[in-house]
Structures are given as structure tokens and as C-alpha cells.
Amino acid sequence: MLIRIPALLSPEEVAHCRTVLTQTPWVDGRVTAGVQSAVAKNNLQVPEDAPEAQALGEIILRALGGNGTFNAAALPLRVFPPLFNRYDEGMGFTAHVDNAIRYISSARQRMRTDVSCTLFLSDPADYDGGELVIEDSYGEQRVKCDAGDAVLYPADSLHRVEPVTRGSRWAAFFWAQSMVRDDGNRELLYRFDRSITLTRGELGDSHPAVLGLTATYHNLLRKWADL
Question: I need a labelling partner for 78 at 20 to 30 A (CA). Which of 66, 67, 89, 131 fits?
């Protein structure tokens, strides 16, 4: 399931992130790559333990916490602290799959990566190339969002970032461990949740159909959730 979240960050928050990142040192992005990804990866990244990255990550985590689309689609149990990458001209990331397990050093715990997320911090007009290409059962999905928009997709998807041919592409990226491990079940619950929201708007919260649908949603979540 590929879900776009428009305006996860406001223009002011995007501008703040970019101002801070402009003043922050960048290192070779392969510092956080696995064995396979290190061969495929060619970008720059802010060190995970950089105070600037941690402060900006808190802004993103707060935005995620209040975003209904993210919470309905990801059903997050844990979210990896956001990281920040940059692709300058000639840089890209060939096809790979994200690591299944990540270690959250601040919490001293491991998490399973069920959902990957890219939050775009560059306007599409500021660079050429740099599309996020995700392979799913419908073929290749090419994603290039407005600054402040985010995209969610299954972490087990084969994906790549096309080489940048002009300008520079900046983004935040992170993963979520979902309460519902299976992507198909998560998609079913997400669509169910959206339908309930529409039905509530038409019939009201107390209508028997809304109550029944809501009960069924939560009983499915209770059956599939892994806490």
C-alpha cells in the first residue's frame, strides 16, 4: 500500500528544517546502510546523533502524532527517529530493500521495519531526477512530492532513488513498526477506517450502521494487532 500524506509539515516548518540543515555537517550516507545497501547507496546524510537531526526529528514526530492519515495507514507501535538525506547532482540509490530490523539507540531497543516513509523537503522544481521509484504488484510507482508531503510504503518493497541530474533533493526518512504486521491486513483496515469516516459524515456517530462498522473495525484490529 502506497499512501501520500499531503502537507505533513507546513511551509514554515519545511523552511525551518532547511535552514537548520544548511548549517549542519553532512557525511557519507553509507554510514547507516546494510551490506547490500552500502553498495547501492550514493548520497549524503546528517549523522544520526547530531543534535540538529534530533531536534528536527521531534518536529516531524509531533506532526506524525497528530496526522490522521499516518496513524490510520501505519497503525504505528514504534517510529524510528527521523534521519535526513541529500542527493546532489549525480547521486542516487539503486534498487534495494530496507533492513528488516533497526536499533533505536536512544531507546536501547530494536524494532521491526514494516512501513517506510520519505518526507520531501525540496520543491520538485528545484531539482531534476531524484524520483522515488517503488515496485509493487501494479508495477513501478514513481513518486516526487511537494516539499512537506510524505509518502508511506511497505518496507519490504524493492525501491530506488533515481540519480539527480540538476539541483539537490533533500528529505527526511524513517520507518514504523506497525501494530499490524501484515501489509494486506493494514491496507484492509485503512480502507475500512476511511469508509467509516465517510459514513459517519453522512449518517452521524450514533447511527447503528456506524456503530456496527466501528465495532467490526476494532474487533479486526484486536484480532490482528501484535503489541
Answer: 131
